[in-house]
Amino acid sequence: MMICFKKYIVWILVVYVSFTDAYAQCAMCRAVLESEEGQKAAEGINNGIVYLMIIPYILIAGVGYFIYRSKKNSKNTTV
Prior knowledge:
By secondary structure, the chain is an all-alpha fold. The protein contains two helices and no strands. Keywords: Membrane, Transmembrane, Transmembrane helix.
């Protein structure tokens, strides 16, 4: 029980440390994007966000398709 608790604490610390770095990056990005010369950078960051959002949806759609196909094939073989 104590080992599980120690692992839990270690994971919390790792997540906390990684989020502090990410939060600092968000402030830097915001400063660049709000400036006049950051328009091209803003466009690039917006495109990056779209790409990052699309990947999970494609993966979920692929898994859903394979589940659908396997259920359809199992119905055809049992009939």
